[in-house]
Structure prediction request, 100 residues.
Amino acid sequence: MTSASVLPSDQRRALWFSTAAFTVCFAVWTVFAIIGIQIQHDLGLTDTQLGLLVGTPILTGSLIRLILGIWADQYGGRMVFFFTMLSAAVMTALLALAYD
Prediction:
């Protein structure tokens, strides 16, 4: 399928799904920002330790994108995107089970 043969309705649908997926992923960071101060207090973390706690997912996320790009070439972007979103949703839900 060439870009000339993509229907405008398909383009709009892709735009809305991508926007919704971005919103869900951004919500994870928002939740972490909200509970970060409480986590720092509960665990007695210094500002540096909290910074490392917040920064580590950013670093690992940038590194995992290399692997996800390779998988997207091998298995298709839709499949990789679906499992990435599913993984993010499951991990976010598991936060409710976390305790100190």
Q: What stands out?
A: The mean pLDDT is 87. The CA atoms of residues 28 and 34 lie 10 Å apart.
